[in-house]
C-alpha cells in the first residue's frame, strides 16, 4: 500500500510537469485555433536563453526578465511573419507551419548559445522531504512539490487573467468567434501577440522547471511529446483540463509501468499514455473538458 | 512564375555543386570524410568529438606538416544522426579527395548498420570506436569493419570486474544484486545477454529495467530500484536519460558511488545537469578527461594559438567527448602512418591500403608516450582475428567539478566475450553467405 | 496553345475513361517514364542513384500512401513510419521463415500486414476526428516501435534488435548494382502510383473525398463511412508498408526499429503538405523537395561557405533555413508544389497569347 501510494504521488507530481507544457499548447489553440507544435522548441529556447544570459554574469531576476523579453519577441515575430500571412488557411497547413517554426527555433537556439549541456540550479533540492520519509516511508521530492506549487500559482494567475482583465475577456471572445470579435472592434492581431507572449512565458516557466530537473539541453523539446496525450485527454481548449489531464496521465503512466510493465518487459510508458488517451477519446471524442462539437450538414 | 524560376535555379545549383565538388580534389593530400552531426539532441556529443578529432588532424598538419609530408584534408557532412542522411553522406564523401574517402567513422550505430554492406563493396574501411556492431570484432567475417578499442560487451565485463574488486574479490559477488537500467533501444538491449551470462558465472542476480526514449521521466523505474534494493546499479543510458537517472537516484536515496555508467553515460554533459546529485557517480571510459595531457597541450599550443581550433567553447577542451575525438584522431593518423610504412612513405593511401593500416595497427605504451597520450587511451594491437584491439577501460568518478580517474586500465573478460562474438559473427556470416577469411593467410 | 484539350474528341467509352484523357498528359507521362527508365540509369552517377534517386522514390511511395489517407480521405496520420516498419519487418520475416518465398510476394505480404495493422489503428477514426485522431496514429507509432524492439522474434533474436534484409533476387537475377536496385524500385513505385492515380478517380476515391469534405453529408448520401475510412487506412498502410520494405531491402539494407521514429513520420507528412495535399504528383514533388533540400543546403554550406562560418553555426543555419523555407512555401503556396504545376498548365493553355 505504501509503495502504491508512493508511485501514485510520484506520478501525480510528474503529471504536473507535463501540464506545464500542455498549458502552452492550450493557450495558443484557444485563442487562434493553431495547434502549435513548436511549444516544445519554445520551452528549449526559453530555458537555453535564460541560462545563456545567466552565464554572461547577469543576475537571476534580470536574466528572467530578459529571457521573457526574448520570448515576447519570438511570439510577436511568429505572429507577424508566420501566422498573419496564413490567416484562413486550413488547420493542417498552420500545424505544418509550426513544425517549420520548430526547426527554426531549435536551430536558432543552438546557433546562439552552442550545443553544450548546462545545469540549472533554482536553489531547491530534488530530494525527499525527510520528516515525511521518516514518518510514513513515502518519499516526496521537495522540488516536485515546489513545481506543483508553481503550477497552482500559474493556473490561478491565468484563470484570473482570463476572467477579470479586459484583455482576458477579449481573448475569450476571440476564442469563441473570430469574426464576431473582429466586428465588435477587438484587435485580433494584438490579442494573438499577447497570447503568444503569454505562451512564451509559460514556456519559460516550463523550461526553468524542466531544466532544473534534467538539465538545459535539447531534450527539453521532447517534453512536448509527453504533453500531447495530456492535451488530448484534457481537451485542447481547457486550462483546468491541462492540469487534470496531466494528473491522470502522470499517475496512470507510472502505475502502469510499475504494475503492468513487469509482465511485458517494461518501457511501456512510451506508448501507454497515448493508448490511454485513445481509450478516453472513444468514450468522449472531444476530451474531458473540450467543447462538444455538433456536426451539421 | 518567379517562384518557379527560383526553384529551377536552385535545382541547377544543386546538381552543379554535387557534380563539381568531386573534381576539386588535390593530389598528395589524404582525404578523410567526416559524417558529423552538430544539430539537435546529438549536438553536444557530436560537436565535442568531431571538434577534438579535427583539432588533432590540424595539429598533425601544423606541427608535423602532415603524415610524412602528406597533408590531411577533411570535409564534414551533416548527418543529423539520421540513418538516411548518413547513407547520403557516405555516398557523397566516397568519391571526394585524391583517392576518395579513405575511412568512414559515422559515430552512430544506426548509420554503421546502414553502410555495413556498402563499405565492403566500395573498399573503404569503417572504424567505429566504442559503438557500432559488437560482433564485427571478428575480423574474419567483417574485414572492413573495425569496432576499435573496446565494445559494449568487453566494457561490461570490465565493469563487473571493477564491481568485483570494489566488493573485495570476484567471489564476493555471489548473492549480490545488480540492477541494469538501460535505454529501451537496440543500443540499450545489447548487454542483456552478456550480463545474464555473467550473473550465472559469478552467482549474482541481475534485474533489467528499461527506460523508454528519451528518458526524461524515470520515477517509476527508480521506485522499482528502491524496491529491489540492489547493491549496484549499471546505467546504460543515453543523453538526457543520464542526468535524469542520477537525479532520480538521489531522489530515492540510492548512493551514486554505487552507480556505474557506460561511456555514453560518463561525460560532463551527463553529470553537470544533475548538479550536486552527480557527486560520486562512476563511469567507464576508453579515454579519460583532462586537459593536462601533452597531446591536448600540443593542440592548444599549435592549433589554438594560431586561431585554427575547431571548438567554439574553449572550456570544453579536455572534456570527455573532446578527448574522445582526439583518440579518434590519433587512431586515424596512426593507421595512415602504419599503412605508409608498408605501401610507401609520403604517398596518399587508398581505402584498401588504409584497411591494411588499421588491421596492422599497433600502438604500444612507448608509442603512446611519444604521442603525448600516455594514460590518455589504452594501448592497442589490432589483428586480422581481433578488430577490437584492446578491450580495456578506466573508471572515472565525478567529484562534483570534474572527472577523476579511479583505476588503471582494466582488461575485459575475453574468455567470456570472444566466444559470444564469434557465435554472433558466424550467425551473420551464415545469413549473408559470407565465407570467413582464413587469418593465417593474411600478411 | 501548347497545352490545349480543345479538339480532342472521345469516340468510345474506353477512350473517355483512360487515366490520362488529355493527349499532352499522355505524352508527358510517357516522356517522364522514358526518362526515368532509360536516361536516368544510363547517365546518373552511382551517387545520384544510390543516395538520391532510390530514397526519393521510396519516400514518394510512402508519401503517396499518406496522401491517400490524409489528402484524399481527410484522416490526419502521424504514424506512417510505424506502418513502414511493419512492412519492412514483415517482409524480412516472410523471406526468412518461408523457404523459396519470392521477393515481390514478400513485399506484397509485408504491405498486407501493414494494411491489417493500419485497419486496427484506424478503427478509432470512426469516432474521433482531426487532431484528436492524430493521437491514435501516434499510439500506433510508439506502440509498434516498442513492440518491434521488445519482441526478439521479429528481428530473429539478434542481440541488437536490427534486421539485415536478404538479397534481392527475382527469378535468379540479383538486384545488387545501383542501376538494378533503382529500376526495381522505380518499377514498383511506377505501378503503384498508376494504381493510386486510378483508384482516386474511381468510386472509391470519390467516396474518400466525400468523407474528407464532410463525413456527415457523405453518410447522408449513402456512403458507408466505416468501410470507406477503414479502406483508406488499409490502402494507405499498404503503400507505406511496401515503401518500408523497399526502404529496408533496396535502400538501407540493415534497419533498426528506432529508425522508423516519429521524425520519419513527420518527414512524410511534410512531403505531402509541401508537395500538395490530395495530389498524386504532389507526393513526388514533396518527396523530391524534402529529400533534396537538406542535402542541397549541406552541400552549399560545406562546399561554398566552408570556412566562412563556424561549423556549429553552419549546421544550425541549415536547420533554420530548412524550417524557414517550409514556412515560406506554406505562406506562398499553401496548396503545395502540385498547385504550381496546375498554375503552369493554365499558363501553357494560353501561351503564347496570354490575353
TrEMBL record, chain A:
Subcellular location: Cell membrane
Protein's UniProt keywords contain Cell membrane: yes
UniProtKB keywords: Amino-acid transport, Cell membrane, Membrane, Transmembrane, Transmembrane helix, Transport
GO terms under biological process: amino acid transport
Keyword check for Transport: yes
Membrane-topology descriptor: Multi-pass membrane protein
GO terms, molecular function: transmembrane transporter activity
Membrane spanning residue stretches: 6-27, 60-82, 94-113, 143-162, 191-210, 230-250, 262-283
Domain of life from the UniProt record: Bacteria
GO CC annotation, single: plasma membrane
Major subcellular location class: membrane
Family classification: Belongs to the binding-protein-dependent transport system permease family. LivHM subfamily.
PANTHER family cross-referenced by the UniProt entry: ABC TRANSPORTER PERMEASE PROTEIN, BRANCHED-CHAIN AMINO ACID TRANSPORT SYSTEM PERMEASE PROTEIN LIVH
Full protein name: Branched-chain amino acid ABC transporter permease
Record organism: Azospira restricta
Highest classification ranks of the organism: Bacteria, Pseudomonadati, Pseudomonadota, Betaproteobacteria, Rhodocyclales
From TrEMBL, chain B:
The Leucine-binding protein domain, residue ranges: 31-400
Entry superkingdom: Bacteria
CDD domains, per the entry: PBP1_ABC_ligand_binding-like (cd06334)
Transmembrane annotation, as ranges: none
Region forming the signal peptide: 1-25
Pfam family, one: Peripla_BP_6
Keywords: Signal
Similarity-based family: Belongs to the leucine-binding protein family.
Name of the protein described by the UniProt record: ABC transporter substrate-binding protein
Natural source organism: Azospira restricta
Species lineage: Bacteria, Pseudomonadati, Pseudomonadota, Betaproteobacteria, Rhodocyclales
TrEMBL record, chain C:
Domain of life the protein comes from: Bacteria
Principal location: membrane
CDD domains named among the record's database cross-references: TM_PBP1_LivM_like (cd06581)
Membrane-crossing residue ranges in chain numbering: 27-45, 51-69, 101-123, 130-149, 182-200, 230-253, 268-301, 313-332
Keyword annotations from UniProtKB, A to Z: Cell membrane, Membrane, Transmembrane, Transmembrane helix
GO molecular function terms attached to this record: branched-chain amino acid transmembrane transporter activity
Protein name, UniProt field: Branched-chain amino acid ABC transporter permease
Organismal lineage: Bacteria, Pseudomonadati, Pseudomonadota, Betaproteobacteria, Rhodocyclales
